[in-house]
Design brief:
Helices cover 33% and strands 19% of the residues. By secondary structure, the chain is α/β, with parallel strands linked by helices.
Amino acid sequence: MRVLLIRQSFQYVYTLFPRNKKSRELRPPDGLMYIAAKLERSGHEVSIVDNEVEQLTVEEIARRIKAGGFKMIGLGATTPEFPYTIEFASSIKELSDVQVVFGGPHVTALPEDSLRENPAIDFIVREEGELGLTALAGALSNGSELGSIRGLSYRDNGKINHNPDGELSNNIDEFPLPARHLVPYREYAFPFPNEGLRPVSTMLISRGCPHKCKFCFPMHGRHVRTRKPELVVREMEEVVSIYGINH
């Protein structure tokens, strides 16, 4: 299946970020890159649109969806971002015949409300997206039943179904490294003291948080799962040698 993952631009949500690219901190969409890598490993064709960088209109993205033959788009949103992402998804559905999948903390926390109130959403992949979205893409490609996909919420003849929660992987080393080759990696930058704005890559070395902040939804669970140090170092070496990024 051909899948397009989209990070919509949230400049109008987080107004702390100035619009001038030369002075603006911008970090890569790690979540989408991890999901893309897992989809690629499973044989799917994947592209990423980072609209924080490209600043495409809805019409331009719809044309890209049609030209690329994408059958599914994946979107994610926190609660402040959700209304803007829904507006975008609704416009895309009007302009193209594509399945829309949502992930992220807002829909994971409120899957029933999200589906009931927003007809633009076809599927919700709750919690971590690598396994759930890959299983969904495979099922839609093969015409398989959806009831066995853990962590999936969806409509079936107008009825909203919520499959049992997925199990968080205790071995996050099993996930492939994020698909940095699918994003404009030289566009991501961070202001370093005495150096100015420099190209940057972010890395994940653990998932999960044991704390219970009231404002935060625990997308990755309460149990902290860490990667092997040697694999973290190997990824650092790849970022430096392949992508030429030293921060």
